[in-house]
Specification:
Largest sheet: 2 strands, antiparallel
Order of helices and strands: EEHHHHHHHH
Number of helices: 8
Distance between the termini: 34 Å
Strand order of the largest sheet: 1-2
Oligomer: single chain
Radius of gyration: 19 Å
Structural class: mainly alpha
Number of strands: 2
Length: about 150
């Protein structure tokens, strides 16, 4: 799979800003430390184009997971949504998929217990979204990867 990419930061009063800055500004506005007009100005520039939120939230966490678990080529998902290299990366990802199809390699061949353990370690190391737990459990179940409690009983 190829991740669509993360969004570029916006610029507010000469400083790079992301959706996280908007979250913090909402609190500052509620506390009377930022005017409604300033908040609106920030909101209008924080997300300047296409792409997933710039924080290590679910989309970027799962993008990292897809590389670490083996479903995305390493380094491809780190290319931001609107960067010119995205077209080249998308083409190369298509080549990888065609190669997998020609060789008869399926997700079940890739999604091993070790691959899941690698992905889980990656989530922990990056401080990724806790939603990764739900997604990884669902993928593992779909692929028939046994849980630790199941394998320890054997």
């Amino acid at each position: 799979m190829l991740y669509g990419g993360t969004i570029a930061p916006g610029v507010y009063r000469g400083k790079d800003v992301t959706i996280q800055d908007v979250f913090e500004a909402v609190g500052a506005n509620a506390a009377g430390k930022m005017t409604d007009a300033e908040l609106l100005e920030l909101e209008n520039v924080a997300c300047p184009g296409a792409g997933a939120c710039g924080g290590q939230y679910t989309a970027n966490t799962m993008s990292t997971v897809m590389e670490l678990i083996g479903l995305s080529p390493m380094g491809f998902n780190g290319v931001p949504a609107m960067e010119a290299r995205k077209d080249e990366v998308a083409f190369k990802c298509g080549e990888v998929v065609l190669n997998l199809l020609q060789k008869g390699i399926t997700p079940k061949d890739i999604l091993t217990r070790a691959a899941f353990e690698n992905a889980i370690a990656g989530v922990a190391c990056t401080g990724g979204s806790t939603n990764a737990v739900l997604h990884l459990l669902a993928i593992a179940r779909e692929m028939g990867v046994p849980s630790p409690s199941t394998t320890s009983r054997k």
